[in-house]
Amino acid sequence: MSSSGFASQNGAGATYANGLSQNPVALYPSNQGYMTPPQPGYLNAMPAKAPTPPAPSCYNPSRQQPSPVAMSQHPLSLPSSPNHRPALVPPAHTPPLTNSFYQQHPQQPPRWPPPAVNHASPALISTPQQPYSTGTSTPLVFQNTMQSPAPLPPYSALNNTHMPAAPALNIVAPHTHHSFGKPPAALRGTPPPSGPPPPLVTHNDGPYSAQPGAMNRLMGTAYPSLQPAYQSVPTPQKPPHMQPAAQPYSTAAAPQYQQPTVSAAQLGPSLAALNLQSQMPEALRVVNLLQERSLLPPGAVTPPTPCLPQDLQRLNCSPEVFRCTLTSIPQTQTLLNKAKLPLGLLLHPFKDLSQLPVVTSSTIVRCRSCRTYINPFVSFLDQRRWKCNLCYRVNDVPEEFMYNPVSRSYGEPHKRPEVQNATIEFIAPSEYMLRPPQPAVYLFVLDVSHNAVETGYLDVVCQSLLDNLNSLPGDARTKIGFITFDSTIHFYNLQEGLSQPQMLIVSDIEDVFLPTPDSLLVNLSECKELVQDLLRSLPQMFSKTMETQSALGPALQGAFKLLSPTGGRVSVFQTQLPAVGAGALKPREEPSQRAAVKDVQHLSPATDFYKKLALDCSGQQIAVDLFLLSAQYCDLASLGCISRYSAGCVYYYPSYHNHHNPSQTERFQKDFKRYLTRKIGFEAVMRIRCTKGLSIHTFHGNFFVRSTDLLSLPNVNPDAGFAVQMSIEENLLDMQVVSFQAALLYTSSKGERRIRVHTLCLPVVSSLSDIFAGADVQAVTALLASMAVDRSVSASLSDARDALTNAAIDSLTSYRTSVLTIQQPGLLSPACLCLFPLYILALLKYKAFRTGTSARLDERVFAMCQLKYQPLAYLMLMVHPALYRVDNMTDEGALNINERTVPQPRVLQLTVEKLSGDGAFLMDHGTVLYLWIGRNCSPTFLTQVLGVQSYAAVPQNMKQLPELDTTESSRIRAFIDWLREQRPFYPILHIIKDESELKAEFMHNMTEDRTESALSYYEFLLHLQQQISK
Ligand SMILES: [Zn+2]
C-alpha cells in the first residue's frame, strides 16, 4: 500500500483489512459480558394520562360483537356530535402509575372508555362520498372545517358552527405521572482511540490514481459537485427559519423522487405573506388540531431541513441515512427537558446507495485525539492545519492530503472528496485489520421435522438457493454449509471428490460435536455440484419423516462450533416451538389473553439460552438470522434473542404453508431472494461519535454494545436500521453547530476491509421555539416507538402505551405554555408536529402496542422487533400506511421517469370516510400493498384495469394486475411499480373485495376511525386537549 489511489469502484477491489479495536478473542470485558445497552433510569411513580380502551364491561352487553371485517365504522354510524355519546364510565380503579418518556409531574388522568358504536362495514357504502363534503348525514366533527391552511377565522365562529364542545369527561383520582425518565448520566468519556494514528506521510509523488472522469460520474448527481462550487460560488447565508434550503440530495438521476418541501408558498398567498411579515417559519405556524382535519401532505412527509448556512447544508448527510429527532439541537439539557421531545439519531448506515464515493488511500485522515474521520464540517485553519469538529483539536494536514485526486491539483485539501462528501467509503489499509479478512461464509440450518416438511417451505428454500447460488455475495473463497435437524442434528459432508453428499447424524444432542470438522463447510465454487445435488434432494429426503421434535438449541450449538473459526452468517429456519435439548421452550401463550384489555404477558424471553448463545456467536463474528414459519406459537420473544444480540435479522411468516397460504409463500420467496442476494458486510463494528458535550446513552436495533459508543455487528445488511438516544452532558453555549459521525467498519463479501462514514451537522439553538421549529415528527415517532418497545418488556404494555400518549401531551403542553405567546383555545400544535398525535395514535393501534383486539403473541413480538429494526422510511409505512384513490388518477402532477409517466395521487387520511363504494383504493403498508375494490367500482376500471366485466367477476386472491393495453392500466401499474422501486424488498399486492379475508387487515389500518377497543383520532385529540388544558 505504498501508493494510495482514489478508486471509483463501489464494491470491487482487493485490499484486505480488519479492524479498529476488533479483537475476536477478547470481546467482552468481564463486567460487561451479557449486558444489554444501558437503559435510561425509568421512573415509575406517576399517573396514567393515556386514554384506556374500554373494558369489555363498558359496552352494552346486548350488542353484537362486530365481525372482523367491521373494525372500522361506517361514517354514518358515528355519533354526529359528542353529545350523543353515552355517559362515560370511569374504571373501577386506576393504577397508581403513569408514564411519560421524560419526567414526572402529577396529572389528573381520566379514564375514557368510548361508547360502543355500531360497526357497519364500509362495504355497505354505496353512494360516493365526497371526500370533503359537508353533507348533514355525515358527522360534523369530521367535516373539513379548515381543509386548506388559510388564515384562521375567529375561533368562536368555527367553534360554534363546526366544532363540538369538548365532552364532559369523568375524571378519576389523580395518580402520578410516570415517565421514560431522564437518561442516566451517560457512559461517555472521550471515546477510546479506535485505531492507530494515521502515519504521517512525507512527500509522495503522484500518490493518487486519480480518475476525475469516473469521479464525476460517481458523485456528480447525488452529491454536490466537487467543482468550483465549494468556494467560488458564494451562497447567501440563510436567515434562520426562513424557507428551507433546497433539498441537497435532489439528483439529476432521480429528481422524480423528490417530494417538494412544504413551503410557505404552497400554503396560499395570504398565509405566505403572513409568514413573511411575521418572520415566523412555517414549521411554527399554529395549528388547531381540532379544527384542521386535513394535515397530511399530498405526498410523502419530508424531513425538515436543518437551518444551516446553505453551503454547509449542501454538504450535509442525506436524511435517508442519518436523521436526528431535533434538527436544531438545544443548547442545554435543561432546555431539552423543557421541550419534552426525545433527542436521538436514526440511522440506516448500510443502505444501498446508487452513488457512493469510495476512496483508497494509505492514509485515512482522522483526528489524533478523538479519532473522528475528516469530514465536510471540519475547519481548515490554513492549508496545513484542520480543526476537528467533534473535539476541537487542531490537527496537521498530512502531506498526502494536499493533493486532490479529483482536480489533480496540489494545495487544495478542502477540495478532497473526504471534505466534500458527508457519506464516503474508505478501503482500509492494513492497520485496520487484526486478522486477515475472512471469506464470506454461509451456513443454512433447516428444520426438517414432520411439521416443517408438511409446510412445504423446504422446496422454496432449496429452489431459491439453487436459483441464486451464483448471486450469493462473495468471491472465490466463499464457503457454504448445511445443517438439518429434527430431534437429532444432521451435518452434510460436501467435500470435493465425493460422488454425492454424505449425511452425518449426531444423535447426542446433549453434547453436539462436529463429525468431520473440515468437510462440513466447503468452498462454494469448488463443490458447487455437490451443493446443488444436496439442494435438489433435500426436500425429498425427509418427505416421509415421522419425527415431530425440534432440537433447535443443539442445532444452533452445532452451527456455532462450525463457524467459530471464521465467523459468518447462519440462516435458521424454524417452524415450531423447540421442545428438546438445550434451549427447549414451553408454550406460554394463552389464546384467551390475545385480546388483553390491558397488559400482555410473556413479552420477555423465557430463558437466557438464546441470548447467551448469541453473545458467544457475536464474539466469533457469527450472526444468526431467524426465519420463523409457523402456524403455532413459537415463543419469538425467546427465540428472537439469537438474532437480536448477534446482529441478525428476524423474518416471520405466520401460518406459512405452500398450498394453504400462497400469499405468505410469495412473500417468503421474494424476501428470501432479496436476503440471499443483497449486500452483506462481515466482522463489522459501528462507532457513533458526537461533538463534545453530547453523549449517547441507549442504542436500539440488533447488535451487541461492546463499549459506550461501539456496536458489534458480526453481519451488517442494507436493510437494517438503528436508533440512538442522546443527552446533553455539557452545555453547548459557545457552539453554532454540532456534528455526529457514524463509522461502520466491515469486511466486504469480497474480502476487503472498508469503512463507511456518515457525518451529520446540525445547528445549536437557545430558544424553545427554535427547538420546536426543527422537530422531525417522523424521527421523533420512530425513536419513541423503540423506547416504548423497551418499556413494554421492562415494565408493561400499559406503561408503554401511557408513555406514548404522554409524549404527545407533554410536548404539546410545553409548546402551549412556553412557546405560544398568544393563548388561543383549541388543541394547538406547531405545524411541524401536527402529525404527532396522529402518529402516536397509529402506534397505539399498531400490532405491537394495541390492546383489546386479538393479536397473537408472536405477531405482537414480531411487530416490536420490526419497530426496533426497520429503517425509518419503512417503519413509518408500517405504522401509518399511505392510502390513495387509484380509480380516477390523472396525469396532473405526474412524474416523468425514463419516459414513463408515473401519476401521483394524493395521500388520503386513513378513515373509511375516504373510501367510497364506487372507487378503488390502494394502501401502501410498506411490505404489503392492498388494492381495495369498491362494490360499485366503475365498470371502466374493472374492464380497463382488472380485465373483468363486473365486480362479481373479480377473482378472490387476485395478486397481480393484468398487463392491459389501456391508459388506466398503464397508469396504475406505473404507480405501483414506482412504489415498489423505492424499497429494496418487494411488497406483494393483494386485490381485495368485501368478501376477502384480508379486508380485516386493510380496515385495521384505518387509524383515524374508532374501533370497539380504541379511540378515533378526534376522540384522541379531545383526550389530549383535556390533559393539556389542566
Ligand atoms: Zn477530534
Biggest sheet character:
8 strands, mixed
Q: List how many beta strands DSSP finds.
A: 34
What Rg is obtained from the alpha carbons, in whole angstroms? 29 Å
Give the CA-CA distance, first to last residue. 68 Å
Please give the count of helices.
25
- The amount of helix comes to 10-25%
Shape: globular
Oligomer: single chain
Small-molecule binders:
zinc ion
Which spans of ≥5 residues are poorly predicted at pLDDT below 50?
1-50, 52-98, 103-178, 181-278
Structural class: alpha+beta
- pLDDT averaged over residues: 78
Tag the structure with descriptive keywords.
1030 residues; alpha+beta; eight-stranded mixed beta sheet; binds zinc ion
Give a brief description:
With 1030 residues, this protein is of the alpha+beta class. The strands form eight sheets. Strands 3, 5, 11, 20, 22, 23, 25 and 26 form an eight-stranded mixed beta sheet that branches. Strands 12, 13, 14, 15, 16, 17, 18 and 19 form an eight-stranded mixed beta sheet that branches.
Structure notes:
With 1030 residues, this protein is an alpha+beta fold. Helices cover 23% and strands 17% of the residues. The chain is built from 25 helices and 34 strands. The strands form eight sheets. Strands 3, 5, 11, 20, 22, 23, 25 and 26 form an eight-stranded mixed sheet that branches. Strands 12, 13, 14, 15, 16, 17, 18 and 19 form an eight-stranded mixed sheet that branches. A five-stranded mixed sheet has the order 31-28-32-33-34. Strand 32 and strand 33 form a beta hairpin. It is globular. Residues 1-50, 52-98, 103-178 and 181-278 have low confidence and may be disordered. The chain binds zinc ion (ZN). The site of zinc ion has 8 residues, from loops.
